[in-house]
Write a structure and sequence with these properties.
The chain has 2 domains: about 270 residues, D-Maltodextrin-Binding Protein, domain 2 (3-Layer(aba) Sandwich); about 90 residues, Periplasmic binding protein-like II (D-Maltodextrin-Binding Protein, domain 2, 3-Layer(aba) Sandwich), CATH 3.40.190. The strands form 4 sheets. Strands 3-2-4-11-5 form a 5-stranded mixed β-sheet, sandwiched between helices. The protein has a 5-stranded mixed β-sheet with strand order 8-7-9-6-10, with no helix packed on it. Strands 1-14 form a two-stranded parallel ribbon. By secondary structure, it is α/β, with parallel strands linked by helices. The radius of gyration is 21 Å and the shape is globular. It is built from 15 helices and 14 strands.
Length: about 375
């Protein structure tokens, strides 16, 4: 692996400018530095005071709990680093893609940012942690589906059969079963130990609660026969991917957190417009860091084709902008199916303004010195 200085040099060479996002607007971030601060580097997109402020926080650590997945809130962080956008804002960002528990590390202050699969994941964790704040939600499509052996005609056919799940049976899946009239007590629940989707084809379990952009897409690519049930077929609403930040860091360094999101969202815009470029870079990163077999390019492309549509189709507005209203349907599901004793109010778990304030209309504001 290249040294940090070599990586930064490579990123500076690779830095590009996107016409759609290069708005000649003056950056108005607050500064605590004096006007005599050392001049910002020549590649910086911010003035000297803002650059000094961002550098002063030191290394910002982002945890990718899903490795090199082609998902919003993850791929864009990798690309913001590769394209030099963090450098342009004088941010020193370190990415941990080893699959660590991002929520635990961020809550403990050992990292600053991480992304989760849905608002319900945030809510379930919030019942046990008080030091996490959601700052971006990337879509209003639940990322989960129930896929299974082709013999299934409906979810009711799971009664007397088996349903696999990862980590926990999500409130989204529980609501799907309930709305389909399934008696869950008649379904054998099996905690899966790997992500191999072919177990449903081989009839080892009848169905699995999985990610609609991943395991089912792999079965389709292999031309395997299976059935899939999506949340909207059962009038179940939810969210797609959420960025979280350490609450104490957000309180003490709000403008810096905003610039981290500014750079990431600029990269997200690039990936929505130039998916092949982003997938190529992400696949190369995975390969360079010995995760190429787990994240081959063809899989990344399949995943992003689905998930980029979730970002575009979001009813929340510009990418990453979130509101309490977006979370309300899922909040009700977590209250009903999440098995939590005390669920914080939505307003206590999220910051609605941080990302919204980065936009003018639907255009992300990129600073100009």
């Amino acid at each position: 692996m290249a040294t940090p200085s070599a990586q930064r040099a490579r990123r500076r060479v690779a830095a590009t400018v996107t016409t759609a996002l290069s708005l000649t607007l003056v950056f108005t971030g607050c500064s605590t530095q004096s006007s005599s601060s050392t001049a910002a580097p020549s590649n910086a997109a911010v003035d000297a005071d803002t650059c000094a402020r961002n550098k002063a926080v030191g290394t910002i650590t982002y945890i990718s709990g899903y490795g090199y997945s082609a998902s919003a809130g993850q791929m864009d962080v990798f690309l913001a680093q590769e394209l030099g956008y963090f450098d342009e804002l004088c941010l020193d960002v370190e990415i941990n893609a080893s699959g660590a528990n991002g929520q635990q590390l961020v809550a403990a202050g050992q990292a600053q940012f991480t992304a989760l699969g849905s608002a319900s994941d945030v809510m379930l964790a919030a019942a046990n942690s008080k030091n996490l704040t959601a700052i971006a939600t990337y879509g209003t499509t639940p990322p989960f589906s129930i896929f299974g052996n082709e013999k299934l005609q409906s979810l009711k056919d799971l009664e007397g059969g088996s349903l696999g799940y990862f980590i926990n049976l999500t409130p989204i899946a529980s609501a799907m079963l309930d709305n389909a009239g399934v008696d869950a007590s008649k379904v054998e629940m099996v905690k899966m130990t790997n992500y191999d989707p072919t177990v449903v084809v081989r009839d080892q379990v009848d169905a699995i609660v999985g990610y609609a952009s991943n395991q089912p897409q792999a079965l389709r690519a292999a031309d395997q026969p299976f059935v899939e049930f999506l949340p909207d077929e059962f009038d179940v609403q939810g969210t797609y991917n959420v960025m979280e930040v350490n609450s104490k860091f957000l309180s003490e360094h709000r403008e810096v957190a905003a610039d981290f999101m500014r750079a990431s969202l600029r990269a997200l815009g690039e990936c929505l417009e130039q998916s092949d470029m982003c997938i190529d870079k992400l696949a190369a990163l995975a390969e360079a860091n010995n995760q190429g077999a787990a994240f081959p390019r063809e899989q990344l492309a399949r995943t992003w084709e689905v998930e980029s549509a979730w970002v575009r189709d979001s009813t929340g507005g510009a990418p990453g902008v979130q509101t309490a209203a977006m979370w309300e349907p899922e909040y009700a599901l977590v209250q009903k199916y999440g098995d939590v004793k005390s669920l914080p109010a939505i307003a206590d778990m999220m910051d609605e303004d941080l990302v919204a304030d980065l936009y003018q209309g639907d255009a992300l504001v990129w600073p100009a010195k």
